[in-house]
Amino acid sequence: MLTVAPEIEVLARFGRALADPIRSQLLLALSDAPAHPSDLADELGISRTRLSNHLACLRDCGLVVAVPEGRRSRYELADPRLGDALGHLRSAVVAIETDRTCPDAEKRDCC
């Protein structure tokens, strides 16, 4: 049986989170600054219910955390280094050919 190192499992979880365009947008938005769900929903142009489902997925993956603020919660990246990683990925994307598609693009699972 193949044993996968814990860091590889976490990297794969991060990749699955990025595989969904809305979750990618959320992670990029949160890499800029922490935000409240209502602001994120407005910024992304999606319903609060849909946003809530994606935030729950990212929270369950350990990529974001909810910080209580009275009766509201503010979301932020679980670790500031995730923002650095996203920044590096964002700049590396420029080197990737945009006219190609991934054969598994239709298979989008929650992380």
Describe this structure in words.
One of its GO terms (biological process) is response to cadmium ion. This is Winged helix-turn-helix transcriptional regulator. The chain has a single domain (7-94), classed as Winged helix-like DNA-binding domain superfamily/Winged helix DNA-binding domain (Arc Repressor Mutant, subunit A). 53% of the residues lie in helices and 11% in strands. The protein contains 5 helices and 2 strands, in the order ααααββα. It has helices at 6-18, 21-32, 37-44, 48-60, 80-92; strands at 64-69, 72-77. It has a two-stranded antiparallel sheet. A hairpin with a 2-residue loop joins strand 1 and strand 2.
